[in-house]
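Let us practice reading a record.
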Amino acid sequence: MQSLDTLITQDQKHIWHPYSAIQADYPIYPVQSAQGVMITLVDGRQLIDGMSSWWSAVHGYNHPVLNQAVTNQLQNMSHIMFGGLTHQPAIELATQLVKITPEPLQTVFFSDSGSVAVEVAMKMAIQYWHAKDKASKKQLLTVRNGYHGDTFGAMSVSDPENGMHSLFSNSLSQQFFVEAPRSPFGEPCTQEDIAEFKKTLVQHHQQIAAVILEPIVQGAGGMRFYSADYLRQVRELCTEYDVLLILDEIATGFGRTGKLFACEYAQISPDILCLGKALTGGYMTLAATLATEEIALSIRDGEPGIFMHGPTFMANPLACATALASLKLLLDSPWQNTVKNIEQLLLKGLSPCKKLSPVKEVRVLGAIGVIELHDALDIKILQPKFVEAGVWVRPFNKLIYLMPPFIISDEELEILTSAVVGVVKDL
């Protein structure tokens, strides 16, 4: 194996990392292996993973059940085109997703990533109204502080000013934005909070194809938790003004918030649902967009009679087989109790940060812990401090947040939270 210095040098010379730059002096850490919740670096150091590889590896790493699912499927085929062909893993996975998601979602479109799942949802909404002879309904309405992905359609419904894509604002489709909900999770939504959203629907519902929201938790746009009552009222207004509701559960799906899907807190169902991240337990990229039968049949019966999208690696058999195994692992486990225990330990472990002067707020929901600071963080300085403390945490902007794998032990979680508190104290 090449030396550590050689690996880092070649990486910095040739590779673009997420939200980074070529030949920049951002810290980078070559990984040798990963097992359970532990990441082993090439230099031998071991880190407790507090991020679940961006919220996806809910069962941890190198899980024997998921390894076996990959191995078994590999004996049959690693991939086959989905145009005109199908296979059992995709059929079984679609059936299972329909079973566990809220009614009346009945149809499944597989894609490669969360961003593409959002693109698919947006196209479904626009094509649905085109089939209904309402082609003027082609824009979307959303709230500020949202994040839905890095492709162009997804960027257009992410926060246009305070988000990560303001550079591209003049190149994006223009959508409708209202202020993000201010009513906190666990409290009713005030009339003032929903007023701008309702006013925009009243004035522009003839142009709006769909509303798109991250339910209950706004992820990369600020890790904000908001009132389930707000989401409930959004559903009612979408129905009243004949606008579809798209829910982006790519980050919140599969138990992360304490419910299997975050929209269950509001006891509502969307017209279109986007899933990804934890779908395969973090083993490989796969996403799904679910829609009602009404949407699917309307697109079929309209012009051109087919849905105009089709990724090359759509419904990859390896990914579908792994997703089936991951879902079974989750649903057969006492995941509700597991997530509740993580929530209680995060509350306890992060609570000392509430007294620290750099900290604006500490908030926890399910297996999500967030420390919001008053000032933006310098990741070049902070990232090495977490590594030195033996944990992998990837802060951004003013946020230090934890989304650990569900398999994390109480002792590992205590080490993780103590390390975070220690680093924040040093600020």
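A brief commentary: The chain has two domains: 4-62+334-426, 76-331.
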